Amino acid sequence: MDSHWRLYFHNWVSVLGLAILVLLALVATLGPALAPFDPQDIGIAYRALPPGMVNWMGTDELGRDVFSRSISGVRVSLLVGVVAAAASTLVGIVVGSLAGYFGGVFDHILMRITEVFQVIPQFFLAVVLVALFSASVFNIIVAIAILTWPVIARLTRSEFLSLKTRQYVDAARLSGASDARVIFREILPNAMGPVIVSGTLLVGRAMLTEAGLSFLGLGDPSRVSLGVMLYQSRPFIQFAWWAALFPGLLIFLAVLSTNLVGDGLNDVINPQMVEER
Amino acid sequence: MTEVLVEVEDLKVYFPVRDGWSTKDDRQVKAVDGISLALRHAEVLAVVGESGCGKTTLGRTVAGLASPTSGRVWFRGKDLATLSSGERKTYRRQVQMVFQDPYDSMNPRKTAFQMIAQPLTINRIVPKTDLVNEVLRLFDNVGLAPGEAYLNRSRHQLSGGERQRLSIARSMSVNPSVIVADEPVSALDISIQGQILSLMRKLQEESSIAYLFISHDLAVVRSLADRVMIVYLGQIVEEGTTDGVFSNPRHPYTMALLAAHPIPDPELSRNRHRIVLTGDVPSPIDPPTGCRFHTRCPIARPVCSQQIPPFKDFRNGHRSACHFADQLQSMARLLNESGPASH
Ligand SMILES: Nc1ncnc2c1ncn2[C@@H]1O[C@H](COP(=O)(O)OP(=O)(O)O)[C@@H](O)[C@H]1O
Ligand SMILES: [Mg+2]
User: Fold this and answer.
1) ipTM for the complex shown
2) In a domain, A225, yes or no
3) CA separation (Å) from B340 to B208, B333, B335?
4) Each residue of B197-220: pLDDT tens digit?
5) Which phi and psi angles does A215 have, rounded to 5°?
6) A170·B156 Cβ contact <8 A
7) Which domain holds residue A178?
8) Peptide bond preceding B16: is omega within 30 degrees of 0, i.e. cis?
9) How far is Cα B199 from Cα A25, in angstroms, rounded to an integer?
10) Does the beta carbon of B15 sit less than 6 angstroms from any atom of ligand 1?
11) Cβ of residue B54 lying under 6 Å from some atom of ligand 1
12) CATH of the domain at A244
């Protein structure tokens, strides 16, 4: 693994992505402790103040501190991104492994399902799901996971299809290894590389989907997410542009950083030459 | 006669042809198409044929890694298809395999120790406390010394020969009675091949293991095998004792394989008439009619493409499926005298 990490750090773009992501993650975990104001506090007297010494990112149309709200927004966005991507990856790995390993009817059904998901416009489906089941962070996460697991499942399946014909898999069977052992100890560890990369890229996609939903008014009204901030500040963009600019910028940074990290991991894992050298 | 360990009767192993998305294609790859054999205690039976003739599939089926399309495999008189799960476990242990590609037969994420320890722990061969010692003993047994230096190496830290030694150690770890060796030296440098072959011979003599020794190179099996079976497109074309087959080949395919790898033995080569093999093995999806070898056979006659040649029996269980098994030498002599390929 050491040499893998060294390779990752050879590319400064990947390092930059990782740095931004770590910073955002710190902000998200420390959260309220960093915020100078309560993100929900309304101050009639302080409406639409431009960025300054007290309100670093200004205040919005209701006099709420944009900086404090952004911190909360990063927290919600990352939460949605990471949890949705993790759930989706987990489901995708389980389904993809079983389909790839056992094949047969189960595999056939899975492939048809994932094909359906590939032709339906995903964002549209997310809108329908969230609109049907009320807009809460939990439902948004579930909707995103439902939309994205087939991608991971297909990928895992194809890795399994090629890895299960390896001679070391035959050797493990002859050693007396059960199917479960072959799947988890022999094949899965070798299939994880590309799957992790895709999972990382999903984090960014999930955050974008959440922002998109919120921007359509389908965000969780009780949580301050970056998308909700954009949605609420849009009508006032002419006289309080900062209330839209900063959350927008943060979404951009969050998505960009996860994509850079994903690409960086991909470069490390994909050549797969590290081991051979 | 000694006990028959593995018996295979009219084995057929077909694979569906998967052509992209079409599922309508019901053609089949006839990888193994009617092979019977018996492998006895401590015997070395060589299976020889070109690449694509179904040797690996035969070996994997004998090792229980592929299932027969039809026909049967018995182990110690028990039909594999009817084994209980407990018996199946014992069978798994009894029939081990050494693979063609020593690199691919090691999990890239495992160390040499983990690779050998796995069968030992799963099958509870030794108590946990003796695990390291047993692994070291197995290393030593296959000439990996000093063993300690190898424990933590992974596959890219080993040479081809070392990998194959490890593979052999893994197969030996569960005290099998049969080892299917699938071209165990074909991926190795010539200089290493001899070492691995003599290691396998040593282990076989020490532990009385039976080998189903697969090779595409007839020369490799000469000093190792008791009997030789020549396969072409999933079928046996000739079989017999090693001496019988080498000194008096009864099938043009065997003669061609012998000519492909000349043996430095003046006594044998003096009276031998050469048959040179041209072209590739035809597709096992649509094997040629009649004698499957007729499309490449320099002495083929019209009958060869029309009738499937029956086996003709010679001495010591030597048999050949060639219409002209009796007249081969004279036909080949004519061929040689009339000069190279005059058609
Ligand atoms: N799992 C499989 N699926 C489809 N075709 C296979 C499979 N395994 C082997 N074959 C085909 O069966 C034939 C015999 O292959 P194999 O047993 O590997 O022969 P050999 O070991 O003599 O080279 C080849 O045409 C090969 O492509
Ligand atoms: Mg083979």
Assistant:
1) 0.90
2) yes
3) 46, 12, 8
4) 999 999 999 999 999 999 999 989
5) -65, -25
6) no
7) 38-256
8) no
9) 57
10) yes
11) yes
12) 1.10.3720.10
Residue A178 backbone phi and psi in degrees, to 5:
-75, 170
Of all helices (H) and strands (E), which one includes residue B196?
A: helix B190-207
Residue pointed to by tokens 């229980």: B64
The distance of B316 to chain A (nearest Cα, Å) reads 34
- Render pLDDT for B222-281 as a digit per residue (tens, 0 to 9): 999 999 999 999 999 999 999 999 999 999 999 999 987 665 655 555 555 677 788 889
Backbone φ and ψ for B4, nearest 5 degrees, come out as -80, 125
Torsion A115-A116-A121-A123 (CA) sign: negative
The model's pTM is 0.87
B226 burial level (CB within 10 Å; 0-12, 13-18, 19+): middle
Distance between alpha carbon A39 and the CA centroid of its chain, in Å? 24
Q: Quick one: tokens of A95?
A: 């389904």
Q: What is the pLDDT of residues B283-309, one digit of tens each?
A: 999 999 999 999 999 889 999 999 999
Are B167 and A175 within 8 A, CB to CB?
no
Is residue A164, in this structure, part of any structural domain at all?
A: yes
The number of distinct structural domains making up chain A is 1
Q: Are strands B95-98 and B178-182 parallel, antiparallel or unpaired?
A: parallel
Distances in whole angstroms, Cα of residue A219 to Cα of each of A73, B188, B194: 12, 62, 71
Ligand 1 pocket, residue B100 CB under 6 Å = no
Whether residue A239 is contained in a domain is answered as yes
List per-block mean pLDDT (blocks of 10 residues) for chain A, which spans 277 residues. Answer: 75 93 94 84 82 87 91 94 97 95 90 87 88 91 93 95 96 95 95 93 94 91 90 90 94 95 85 48
